[in-house]
Amino acid sequence: MSALMLIPRNVCIAILVAYRAIVSPLYGDVCRYYPSCSSYTLQAIQQHGAVRGIWMGARRIVRCHPWAAGGVDDIPVPRRAMTLTRFGFVTGAA
Hints:
Elements: H1 7-22, H2 24-27, E1 33-34, H3 37-48, H4 50-63, E2 71-72, E3 82-84, E4 90-93
Helix pairs in contact: 1-3, 3-4
């Protein structure tokens, strides 16, 4: 996979990592699901790409409301595995 095609995905990852480091600690542990919505979206973007990952994260956020049962909600297994750096950025196919 071309490094140029990974730029949008890695930009989204950088934004979510910053959100999780700066904003998320202010809210504390309030998510009804495991993993949290931001972690779920981060994993979805890492494994499925920017467009599909954002779509999956948005659907997850819509499902998260006061009347939701919550619980464990893992992302679907991707069609092909991606290699991640220690900071979570995508480098290409495994």
